[in-house]
Specification:
With 268 residues, this protein is α+β, with helices and mostly antiparallel strands. It has 2 domains: 80 residues, Phosphorylase Kinase, domain 1 (2-Layer Sandwich); 178 residues, Alpha-Beta Complex (Aminoglycoside 3'-phosphotransferase, Chain: A, domain 2). Helix content is 40%, strand content 18%. It contains 8 helices and 10 strands. The strands form 3 sheets. It has a 5-stranded antiparallel β-sheet with strand order 1-2-3-5-4. A 3-stranded antiparallel β-sheet has the order 6-8-9, with helices on one face. It has a two-stranded antiparallel ribbon with strand order 7-10. A hairpin with a 4-residue loop joins β2 and β3. The longest helix has 21 residues. The mean pLDDT is 94.
């Protein structure tokens, strides 16, 4: 990415240190006082970063703990979004036992997001939209095999999409009956936890927020945490806690599996 950092990032009062980046390829910097982060996108991704800014503005005051916008800059080289830091550490950095203690509060944070009015949310992450994205990614032969489960590595991408298509009508009907405001990427790096109290202090990375079936979020959250659990019993306990906390008496495992199969086809 050819971006002039100095043109986008104000270094007059603070130093900025690069930190790990997400799947988008955006650059992330931490301010020297630890109270802010900056996300920098290339010109080709400026629209996506502007979309995240709009989503954070929409979330403000809605009861969901998330970053607040400090500054926004955009040039012909790219864009920079400066946000307040959520205090704590990413959940991905917690040992499995500590993550399990934090798990109920993480579920509650996600539940607060899902409880927002989908009718008042202008952002679309619907199954129809994500399916169109998957069709595009597959047509360009752009599926990233690193995102696929081991058992799907040798399966042609068009066959993976056909598997999605066979369930599409049923899943669209389920979404219509259970449409909520979804985070879009509720993986462990995007939950922030106080390492002392082991309470979730907020969520970050809202670039994929939008109206969708809540199971799109639940599938990613449960799957992404799998490597943190040291036993089948711990994984099952986490699964039970999540759905108990969210008041879902009978989790639909087939629905979870569907969204896990769809998600890898939408990145590319």
């Amino acid at each position: 990415m050819m971006v002039s950092i100095s043109a986008l990032l104000d270094r007059s009062r603070f130093d900025w240190t690069p930190v790990r980046n997400g799947e988008s390829g955006d650059l992330v910097y931490r301010r020297s006082d630890g109270l802010a982060y900056a996300k920098i996108a290339s010109a080709g991704r400026s629209a996506e970063l502007a979309g995240e800014r709009k989503r954070l503005l929409w979330l403000k005051g809605g009861g969901v703990a998330c970053p607040e916008i400090i500054d926004w800059r955009e040039t012909d080289q790219g864009a920079c979004l400066v946000m307040t830091a959520i205090p704590g550490v990413p959940a991905v950095d917690l040992p499995g036992a500590d993550l399990l203690k934090a798990w109920p509060s993480m579920a509650r944070q996600l539940g607060r997001l899902h409880a927002l009015s989908a009718k008042e949310c202008e952002f679309d992450r619907s199954l129809a939209l994500m399916h169109r994205r998957a069709v595009d990614v597959v047509s360009r032969n752009a599926v990233n095999p690193d995102f696929l489960p081991d058992e799907d590595w040798d399966t042609p991408a068009h066959s993976l999409l056909e598997r999605i298509d066979r369930e599409l009508e049923v899943r669209l009907a389920q979404e219509a009956a259970d449409l909520v405001v979804c985070h879009g990427d509720p993986c462990m790096p995007n939950f922030i936890v106080d390492p002392e109290s082991l309470q979730c202090t907020g969520l970050i990375d809202f670039g994929r927020l939008g109206r969708a079936d809540r199971y799109a979020d639940l599938a990613l959250m449960t799957a992404n945490a799998q490597e943190n659990w040291t036993s089948i019993e711990q994984a099952q306990r986490a699964f039970d806690i999540l759905f108990e906390t969210l008041g879902i008496a009978t989790p639909d495992r087939e629905r979870l599996a569907f969204y896990l199969r769809l998600d890898p086809l939408t990145w590319g």
